[in-house]
Specification:
Elements (H helix, E strand, L loop, with lengths): L11 H5 L7 H18 L10 H13 L3 H4 L7 E5 L7 H7 L4 E5 L3 H13 L6 E4 L3 H4 L9 E6 L5 H8 L3 E11 L4 H14 L1 E11 L4 E10 L13 H4 L5
């Protein structure tokens, strides 16, 4: 597959890989999102993955494949949070694909958060997508965020033990944390399990795929709570990354 123009549509076979197809309105929103990324990337460094397969595979498909199950029940009311949203993905792709989802984008860099606000407005998603310019360590302590989400996810943010400390405190009783990562090994699993024991959580499933166009191996680790996450987590700003749990 090759999509060389800024607003080119992928072929129908692209969506068939997920056994899911967007509506015409959703397709227009994905195209609009691409155009907005191209526009704003000229002013602030959001992402280099904005054209052709870089956008459709490495951004859109990579954001959506882990929630294939949820995509087949798109009208469910679901409360999501995207930690370290950056250019808005995976959060905006999930908001487009799931018309009833409420999505909070957490971005610590104010300039990026301001751009995300403008993009959400242009995409006409303001009624159910909100932006919070804050650090993940602080969000996890705040009322209204802690223990509040059905799905919490992070993509290209940090190593899994660090991400788990950001996400697990945000989960409601039945919530799941989705930790996006590339390659996955038994050593990685062992390290993550050490951190999850401390956070009162465990791995539910490990999802694996290989992206088309030789874009590489992808894994998403689904994590669920086993009890109440201790109130001291997440730790203060910088501490999770500097000293990952279980290390």
């Amino acid at each position: 597959m090759s999509f060389n123009t800024p607003a080119s549509k992928p072929s129908s076979s692209f969506w068939s890989q997920m056994n899911w197809h967007p509506s015409s309105e959703q397709m227009n929103q994905f195209l609009k999102l691409q155009s907005l990324l191209i526009l704003w990337n000229k002013k602030i460094n959001l992402t280099r993955l904005i054209y052709g397969n870089d956008y459709w595979i490495s951004q859109v498909l990579d954001s959506l494949w882990p929630i294939n199950k949820e995509l087949h029940n798109p009208r469910q009311l679901i409360n999501c949070i995207d930690v370290g949203s950056g250019c808005g993905l995976p959060g905006l792709a999930i908001a487009i694909a799931m018309p009833e989802a409420r999505v909070t984008l957490i971005e610590s860099i104010k300039r990026k958060a301001d751009v995300l606000e403008k993009m959400v407005t242009e995409l006409k998603l303001s009624s159910r997508v909100s932006i919070c310019n804050q650090r993940a360590e602080l969000i996890g302590k705040k009322s209204g965020f802690r223990n509040n989400y059905d799905l919490a996810f992070a993509r290209a943010v940090a190593i899994p033990p660090v991400v788990s400390e950001y996400l697990v405190p945000l989960l409601n009783r039945d919530g799941q944390a989705l930790i996006y990562c590339g390659k996955w090994s038994q050593k990685d699993e062992k390290q993550l399990n050490k951190s999850l024991i401390i956070l009162k959580a465990k791995i539910k499933t490990i999802q694996e795929t290989n992206l088309p166009d030789n874009r590489g191996e992808r894994n998403v680790i689904r994590v669920i709570s086993t009890g109440t996450c201790p109130s001291k987590y997440p730790r203060d700003i910088g501490k999770p990354a500097k000293n990952p749990l279980g290390s």
